[in-house]
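Give me structure tokens for this 300-residue protein.
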Amino acid sequence: MDYFSELFVGGLTRGSIYALIALGYTMVYGIIELINFAHGEIYMIGAFTALIVASVLTMSGMSGLSVLVLASVVAVIYSAAYGFTVEKVAYKPLRQASRLSPLISAIGMSIFLQNYVLLAQTPDFLPFPNLLPELTILEPYTGLIGSTEFIIIVSTAVIMVLLTLLIRYTRMGKAMRATAQDRNMAMLVGVNVNRVASNTFIIGSVLAAIGGILIASHIGRINFYIGFIAGIKAFTAAVLGGIGSIPGAVLGALVLGFTESFGTGYVSSDYEDAFAFILLILILIFKPSGLLGHTTSQKV
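Here you go.
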């Protein structure tokens, strides 16, 4: 039972991180109906930015919670700026082009950001300090859940609630929902669709940066390639849940996280990535719209 509980917590932790990244994919798709394949690199840049800032602050004598807060704030702002730039460079100029053009542009941006960080840093793995505090209240349960896992799960839950409130009750959220429902009609009633698209990229980038900081602190190392792997997994989660559906992205991420955790625990860790894609293939065969997605008809 202890082993099962350990795998359950591991799957919940994985799913929480995948959810933070998958939301960026599904939000962007809901607004402009395209996949931002550079999103995983924003996650990676957020983690690298936090590492650099944390290293500088630690050398200057700061430690503890101050390093975590400042490193997170700088990483979030820096990643949001990158997300905003990606939208302006790779998507906005091709807004009226065929869908293939912005798709290729996004893949090119992903490759560019990977190589940019590769040249700016190193191809090797770098140690990442555990910026998350140790929670003494969890000492009786250390055999079941650690401080980093607990913080990741709780942080993700809080972020999901805040995101839901933002989309449901704020002016920005209403504009995002209107644009996702009918872009042309939203423009007719005065919604600035370009601003909505930019805000969506910024919000998605902020979530990805937070995910990067959390998982890098949990794993303890990063390199330039972590964005590609995490991006593919998060994209898989978004498709599993139903691309364009925010609840679907969360559900798909949790399903993927539990599948990987229990699959590696009871079968073999050699097939960790295979489990994700086998699950994706099965969903696409039996329910192509995803777990919470819906089939839409299109006039031809």
